[in-house]
Structure formats: C-alpha cells, structure tokens
Amino acid sequence: MADSQSRSLVNEVLPPVNEYVLNRDYAATTRLNCQFFLWKEELGFSLHPSIPILSSGCRIADLATGTAIWLLDLARSLPNSSLDGFDISLQQCPPPEWLPASVSLHQWDIFTPVPLNLKVRYDIVHIRLALLVVQNNDPRPILHNAMEMLKPGGYLQWDELNVFEAYVASTSLALGTGTSTCTDGYQRAQELTDLQRLEWVRQLQGIVEQCGFEQPREFKYECDIRLAKYYQDMQFLVMEEEAAHAPSATQKEKVSKAINTTYEESKKGVARCTPKIVIVARKPIQQ
Q1: What's the first-to-final CA gap in the chain, in angstroms?
Q2: Which of 139, 162, 180, 256 is 20 to 30 A away from residue 148, measured at CA?
C-alpha cells in the first residue's frame, strides 16, 4: 500500500483554496467516478494509444486528479509505472492506505510554481476536464507547469469536452410529439453556459503549440448515443451543484427551472450530447 508520509513529493502542504464551483461531497465524488467510467466506455482508453509506454515503466502525473480514479484504472494496466496525482484538495480521494503501491497522491495548487523535486520528473503528464479549473480563459499557466514537470521527449495528454460542438439528440418519439418546445429546457440550459470563458477549449491545440510543445494532435470523439441518457442524468447532478453555488437567488432560480424543464424533456427521449477532444503533444528533446 502507498505511504503518503514517506513518499510526499510536495514539501509545503497548502490549505485548500475553495474556488471550485462544484461540490466535493459524497454525491459529487460518485458523479466524478461515474463520469470516468462513461468516458472510458466511450473513448476505449485512459491513456491515449499514440503515447508510447517504456517497458521498464513510466512516471506519470495526473493534474487536478479529482478522485484519483484515472490513476487507479491505469495502475492495473501499468503495474511497473509510478503514478502521482495532484490536486488542491484530496477530500474526494481514497485514504493512502487503500491505494496501490504504485499510486501516491499529493496536495498541490497547480497554479503555483512547480516544486523543484517535480521538475523534469515525468514521462507523461495528464489533465482531464479542466473546464471549471482554467482561470481567465487561459490554460497557459497549467501548460507551463506541465512542461516543467515533463522530461525531454515526455508527453502531454489533455482530455476535454468539445462544448462548441454540443448538440441535442431526440428520439423519434420526442420529435413526434409535434411540439417545438421539446428542447426548450436544453435551450435554457445552453443560455446559462458562458461559452465565452471557454473559448480556450476551441484553441487548445494551438495554445499547446504556442507553449513550446511539439507535434500537438487533436483527436475528436463523437458521442456514443448508447450512453446519452447516462450522460444527461449525470449532467443534472452538475446543474444541481451549480444551482447550490449560484451567486444570486435569481441565477439559482434560472438553473433550477432549467433542470426541471430539461428533466421533463429527457423523459421523452431528449439528451444533450457533448463530443470529446484529446490533445496529445510532446516536450522537445532539446530546448
């Protein structure tokens, strides 16, 4: 089992700074783990198959690790690798005594400078779903830290929701109701999404290259309609958490109305589908 005391990589333990707009309770933890398995079923991998794995094992870092479920899944297929997870809060992770020997978790704010002992340490740095983590529409601070953590020739993998190509899927039964309001709730929910602050997602491949990574490739994954209802039900949980953290009573009421209307529509056979993108890039061998 992992021993967090003897294997700590971050010397300074920072108090959690809760700017995260969702919850960290048991329901949110369950939602994140459900989300992971849906992504795994849809993509078919945790680590992108274009990334080579050393026969002797790799050092892999997972930034904003959340519940650490991505690392736990990877530990089964890469038993010889060293897997480190980092997050500003480890509240949603298993206790250290329950982790595989290859997995260790560390509290670290990824917007702060990289600790010296983490620099040039990793063969792979992974990031997933930083939509609510990236600040000021700018992922460069995270990319800069990822670059510093990677060994020369190491790989970056960033998995994200392709929010700009999201769409509403409807069954023939839902469309056969003859009502133009069958997606009214989804339209209302879409209006509550501030896409302007997510513009960086659309430009991520180019931003990765601007930050000095080589050969950035964007892989697009369409929605698997088999999973549409499960994703939609999970999205209701996200919306409920957003309502709980709404900055005003008016905003909270808007989100609550969108949930109610959208849920009624979902029972007719309507779901919002959001494709995925995966960016894979490499740190130059010589800089």
Answers
A1: 38
A2: 162
